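Module 6 notes. Inverse folding takes a fixed backbone as the condition and produces residue identities as the prediction. Think of it as a translation problem where the source language is geometry and the target language is the twenty amino acids. Below is one complete input and output pair. Work through it position by position during the lab.
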């Protein structure tokens, strides 16, 4: 009952206009600061979640989770590796590939290009690259004896090529099946049968051709360069690929996505941690404004405090009055910040496109990043964590001024009234 009385008095103190308008201004500033910090933190975390989701679904959906590549010679019994992979819990699928590397000529010089020979039936099990090209382009890779090639949009633009035109790939003349014997460079002609648009480095340096034609070009016969692996959990992929590789009779290079694309994931996590820390400090600074508000409120309400104490109210109840008064600032800031943060996060991609349209700029370039839009994925856990963090910090900020209020000497306060 006494707690309810203290909370009711605290609510009345919060609603009452202070005699000093400066106290009202500081109170407003603390609430606005908390709301701003909560809003920005929710938006930033949603953006980081969006980048992580796009990395997993977009980039890691195309880049293999792991690869087993032959050492000094191609893999002859690749079907046995695929069969072994199917027996490993956690590995979803495996697919063979033939990798070719060479140079293509463009205005001003040459550009390196990695050409992946794939079998579309098996490749669809380990990659979603077909989602980033037209069905016609994808089907063109099923023509085993054709010299069709599907280029990234950025590369096609750089080479000024369109569908139907041809390009020459200059690569070392590998002598038979022994890939360590290199002869003079040889030119291989391909016809552009399609364009895929993924963004980032892959758009500029990767192309796809039928696997059988690639094997014929390299004189591999029925052998392949390696086997691509897809894992159910991308974070378990390094362990699964290592276990599979160690079980093989042939010597193979073991590689996984953390070696080639892991830096992107680490960068996202680092930015998330730094922004969380910085914005948490912003909320903490806003919460310290509550200290200033309550210190001035205590001085302004000394006579009322003295009257409550002389009427028998306990010091703990007096302390609770000002904790409640300060906590209302935190609650209001948390609610406003959460509502604004959730609203902006849900519409973040559309807001970013609007800003790009109005200012005539591009926030994210597909030539640099693996996406050309600002992603967002709102998670309820993030909202709850941020709101709880801000509320706890605002309550902590009230403790010292509330304690000072409970130590007010009634006689002195009433004598100076």
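Target side of the pair, the amino acids:
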């Amino acid at each position: 009952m006494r707690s309810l009385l203290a909370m009711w008095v605290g609510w009345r103190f919060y609603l009452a206009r202070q005699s000093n308008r400066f106290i009202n201004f500081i109170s407003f500033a603390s609430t606005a600061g908390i709301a701003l910090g909560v809003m920005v933190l929710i938006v930033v975390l949603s953006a980081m979640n969006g980048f992580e989701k796009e990395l997993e679904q977009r980039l890691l959906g195309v880049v293999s989770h792991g690869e087993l590549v032959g050492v000094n010679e191609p893999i002859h019994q690749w079907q046995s590796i695929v069969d072994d992979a199917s027996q490993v819990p956690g590995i979803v699928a495996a697919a063979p590939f033939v990798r070719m590397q060479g140079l293509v000529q463009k205005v001003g010089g040459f550009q390196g290009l990695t050409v992946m020979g794939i079998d579309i039936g098996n490749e669809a099990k380990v990659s979603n690259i077909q989602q980033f090209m037209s069905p016609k382009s994808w089907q063109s890779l099923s023509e085993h004896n054709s010299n069709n090639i599907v280029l990234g949009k950025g590369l096609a633009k750089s080479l000024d090529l369109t569908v139907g035109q041809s390009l020459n790939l200059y690569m070392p003349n590998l002598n038979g099946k022994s890939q360590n014997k290199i002869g003079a460079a040889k030119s291989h002609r391909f016809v552009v049968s399609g364009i895929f648009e993924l963004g980032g480095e892959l758009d500029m340096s990767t192309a796809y051709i039928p696997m059988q034609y690639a094997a014929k070009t390299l004189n591999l016969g029925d052998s392949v360069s390696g086997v691509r692996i897809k894992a159910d959990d991308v974070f378990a992929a390094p362990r699964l690929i290592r276990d599979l590789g160690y079980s093989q009779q042939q010597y193979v290079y073991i590689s996984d996505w953390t070696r080639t694309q892991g830096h992107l994931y680490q960068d996202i996590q680092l930015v998330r941690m730094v922004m969380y820390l910085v914005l948490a400090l912003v909320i903490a600074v806003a919460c310290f404004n509550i200290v200033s508000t309550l210190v001035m409120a205590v001085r302004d309400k000394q006579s009322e405090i003295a009257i409550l104490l002389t009427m028998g109210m306990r010091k703990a109840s007096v302390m609770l009055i000002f904790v409640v008064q300060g906590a209302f600032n935190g609650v209001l800031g948390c609610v406003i910040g959460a509502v604004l943060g959730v609203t902006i996060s849900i519409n973040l991609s559309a807001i970013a496109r609007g800003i790009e349209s109005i200012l005539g700029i591009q926030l994210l370039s597909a030539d640099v990043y693996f996406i050309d839009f600002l992603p967002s994925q709102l998670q309820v856990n993030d909202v709850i964590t941020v709101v709880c963090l801000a509320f706890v910090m605002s309550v902590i900020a009230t403790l010292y001024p509330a304690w000072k209020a409970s130590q007010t000497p009634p006689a002195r306060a009433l004598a100076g009234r």
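Reference fact for the lab report: The radius of gyration is 32 Å.
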